[in-house]
Specification:
two-stranded parallel sheet; about 10% strand; globular; alpha/beta
Length: about 500
Amino acid sequence: MIDDDSIPNIPDFFRGRDVFITGGTGFMGKVLIEKLLRSCPDINNIFILIRSKKSKSPQERIKALQDLPVFDLLREDNPKNFDKMVPILGDVMELGLAINEEDKLRMANVSVVFHSAASVRFDDPLHEAVIMNTRGTRELMLFAETLKNLTVVVHVSTTYFNPLQRVVCERTYAANGDWKATIKLAEDFPEVLDVLTEKYINYEPNTYTFTKGLAEQVAIDFQHRLPIIIFRPSIVISAMEEPIAGWVDNFNGPVGLLLASGIGILRTTYGDPDIVSDFTPVDTSIKAMIVAAWKRATQPSSEPIVVYNCSTSLQRKFTTGFIVTMGEELSSHIPFDKMLWRPGGSITKCRYHNFIKFIVFHICTAYIVDTIFKIIGQKQFLVKLQRRIYAANLALEHFMLTHWVFENDCFLKLHDDIKPCDIKSFRYDNFITVDVREFFMDCMLGARRYLLHEKDENLPKARLNYKRMYLLDKVVKLVFYLGFIYFVLLKAGVLALVFGE
């Protein structure tokens, strides 16, 4: 712990400061804004880059953001701080971030920048991913250079920025391409770049990882001109404690796997059940990010750029097989209202085994259910959904079969630099001691509440429905096996008659 009176604590550091955030409407961005407003109550303004939408103005989008459950605690404790959320009309995909001169003047006193805007889609065309993830980072850095009071720029990357590197240290790496040339190609020859994607990205698994790797190179090239941190979270999932245990707003990572299995639409997954999954609760990531920004701004560094791998798998090793098993176990305690079949599923590293099971248990079943829906006049959706699940499994294939080691000594040691008075609000190492079963139960409850919008008071009814589905599943399997045995015995009897004659 640091107990130096010359160094301000975290709330004191942010007192009176203006902060600029890109990606503020994203999963991590929302939690970052909430945490700064709640735990650093004397912060001045948080300028949030908001894209233009025909249906809503930036002010309306900010209001919709404030109405989300993630801000419930702030709404109770300090609702006046909502006024500090200032929308800035702009777009990371545009030159100059599309910020007008008037807004640039409003942000002249910004001293802390968090750049978390990115497209996390794996199937984006290469030129679009380059413009968003790589050129957007360049434009952010160019804007940051105009800020005279700047103390730190936090560039949010990913631990998977260089997926061909199996052991990722907390240092910079050479990219698999030239970011300047790639941006030029994306601007001038987008169709050609898209056609040559597989070759151009050097057979990386997708355009997301490739362009995030290039974005890191942008940050590295600005390291002698700006005080930069590269912050690399792994797969970011539901909140462990703050602002609400289990809060989540997307289907990424193990939460999506738990949800699909819990609804009963995921019966098989292609992957290695023994691969260790690296995921980090969103509140752990955000607290560490704020601490890292504070440290870079208040304590001189001998390095021009500092890198943190925000990962957890070296401390808590959870395999994909464990997550699937945990999801099936918890489904009886926290079932979903919209259950289509008994929760379950398995993961296999045999491609052919998975394909056969997918055809039988996913596609064939989906056609049967959609046919029933058609007969009773309901909307048919399951076949389309199962095709999307298969496409998603293909996109994740590389990550479900590959094991990485993300060294995180700097990330863990960063916690030792927190001042004693900040431990209560910014401690983030409790992911090491958290009760795993309780955490996943919160994840399931969060998925119910915030993704499926199901009410907690419906849980008794959902548990009763689970029991019905369990019995139905057993009956269907019994009928299937009895039918199979009957067919085999019948065929054997016919053969006996034939050969007997």
